[in-house]
Amino acid sequence: MTATPDALSRPAWTPAVRWAPALAAGLLFALLFAHPFRLLLDDWWNDPEAGHGLLLAPVALWLAWKAGLRPDRIPNPRLGLVVLASAVLLRYLAGLAAELFTLRLSMVLALAAVVTFAWGWRQVLAWWLPITLLVLSVPLPDLVTSALALPLQFKASAMGARLLELRHVPVELSGNIILIPGRRLFVTEACSGLRSLTALLSLGVLAGGLWLRYPVSRALIIAATIPVAIAINALRIFLTGFLVYYVSPASGEGFMHLSEGWLMFVLAFGILGLLTWLVAALEGVWTRRRRADA
Fold it and tell me: pLDDT tens-digit profile of 240-253?
């Protein structure tokens, strides 16, 4: 084999020069966001309210890889640099204010900026589902979770107490405390349903993005996660009170209480999956009618 003149004249370090900007950008990105990412990993691993991030982030990356790059992608360096500058500024201000949610969210914004720079805004839109899952993997601020948890506690307590009354269990409700003979059930923040609501909301976004075609259908599934989470948590409170009253006070503690939570969570996933299947079937009927009318 004889080397061509072009091959002989091409420097051996040309591939390294071509990849140097990307490698430099990756290194700078890692240095800038190493601290927020480490804090985020710590929350995913240690905080039960944020544990769904351990699943969402890998799924988001896998979905982006599976979707691939659009054939009509057009790099947009100017817009990418503007968004990247905004992300860096947001990261700096959030670091000064020690505001963790904004600090972590700046990472997602910076990723969108890099995608825009390299492949254009259309690619960001094509990856809307992975990017949304990454946003949902960032834990909400404590101020928001505290504001949401208390109303959910009261709502779940009221519904659980009502279900107990329907099963002829003597019950008295005082805020988020359910009084039954010889026992007092305290519906804590962990039992408010906020944890299941966050996970179900993520599942609703994932199911809508994968199996539904129309934005209205996806919005319907996402909206359904709220009543499903509240109803399932109320059912869990009812089941706990029912077992405590009729079986044993130990049913409201330890392994039994934890297993009830997992059982209700699986049930909520099943209900949401069934709703997604029904909406997908209705979409199919509507699509076939439109084609027939056309």
Answer: 888 888 877 666 66
